[in-house]
What we know:
The protein is an alpha+beta fold. The chain folds into two domains: 2-109, Pleckstrin-homology domain (PH domain)/Phosphotyrosine-binding domain (PTB) (PH-domain like), CATH 2.30.29.30; 118-201, no CATH class. It contains four helices and eight strands. The strands form two sheets. A four-stranded antiparallel β-sheet has the order 1-2-3-4, covered by helices on one side. Helix 3 (118-145) packs antiparallel against helix 4. The longest helix has 45 residues, at 157-201.
Amino acid sequence: xxxxxxxxxxxxxxxxxxxxxxxxxxxxxxxxxxxxxxxxxxxxxxxxxxxxxxxxxxxxxxxxxxxxxxxxxxxxxxxxxxxxxxxxxxxxxxxxxxxxxxxxxxxxxxxxxxxxxxxxxxxxxxxxxxxxxxxxxxxxxxxxxxxxxxxxxxxxxxxxxxxxxxxxxxxxxxxxxxxxxxxxxxxxxxxxxxxxxxxxxx
Length: 202
């Protein structure tokens, strides 16, 4: 079992062995903690956590300048995009060699002329995350206003408790307004950043 913790990346915990890959967007100190979390049942809507065999991988896309390998994975009749990004180039090379031997797929190289590589995609993923945050916040506020208890499941329990408190304080319409402001601000930032990446990569 090889285990990587990438605290500054979208996928923060990565466990890889001869049979499968386990990933999560939260930090787990050991592969045993990650495996226990993945097998622990229902995950929260804001969590990304997945365990899959190599046979489930149907596409490999490379963002070499970012040490990032994006996998398209079949998971319960859905296709998931999992972007495994490393700080160290040697870890990227090691995983690519392993995937080549396990899947026999031909990797697709991201366009060298696109400017910014995976960094551009990641900026828009932050917009998606902000939108999901906004939806979750409004949903919590709606449930609270209708007298329903909001369950706290999955990881990041502390963060979710804070969100519940904010939702209760803002109310449904206040939560929607705050969510729109946050999502709009992140979208504006992403557009600005991607424009700079494109100009820099031209």
